[in-house]
Amino acid sequence: MAVGFGKVILLGEHAVVHGRPALAAALQRGAEARTVAAEGPELEVATWELLLRAHGERDPGPHAMLQSAFEALLEAYEPPPALRVQVELSLPGGAGLGGSAALSVAVVRALDAALGLTRSDDEVAEMAQRAERVFHGNPSGIDAAMAAHGGVCRFERATGVRTVRPARPLPLVVGYSGEQGSTKQTVASVARQFEREPERVGEIFDAITAVVQNGQRAIEEGELDRLGQLMILNQKLLSSLLLSTPRLEEMCQAACEAGAYGAKLTGGGGGGCMIALCEGPEVSAKVAAAIEAQGREAFITEAGA
Asked: Nearest to residue 168, comparing CAs of 261, 291, 253?
């Protein structure tokens, strides 16, 4: 079974699109894929009861982009493989958890396995980025890199991923707001703000960079309380870029009141998910319950799958 990891961005989203560093961690959820023989290239997403045929009749609904992304991946295979890729996805779409990248990485790995091809994690991520451009326009590359590599990483567009080794586990609660965010739209929004107000937005990016640098040290030294405070600061900076929502703010506040070290949105924003850093299972359970008490979904995990 071929696997692509979901991810959360611990610190640094959006600034990373503009060349700054970010810290990301793989999740214990993502996408799994396998292949069976078919008349031509097909993509089946069992989670959505969906079957798409490459270069066939265009899907008129919301899955047209997925069809185009699948075709972008297939451009690297000549001739097009007579295979159906069957995918199980365990992440919500539009939630900021890297679902599209996890799916793309799993598809590439399943096709490569069936065709006897071997690629490094970096090469798989580069392949998946073809599909990510269809989904997100100008993605940083962090989702594809994390989906392929796993673990906890520092990512920069210019240098790619560098492994970060936590001194202790990073217990997280992931809360889903129920609001679908569009990374393409929020990335474009921040780009417009940067164009109009380069000094103000540049200073915010500088502050986020400092948060990331301090956050890496906190992770490597096992100082979860300090990391939590940096997450809270990062959330304020992201809010100043109009990336948060009232619902996400309420969820972050509830998590902190329930005992989390810190909480913030993760991913593109404008909806999607938030994350809360906790001391351990007991606090994680309380934080998850506090989020669910607001009528939202939550699950407990550990960063760095």
From this structure: 261
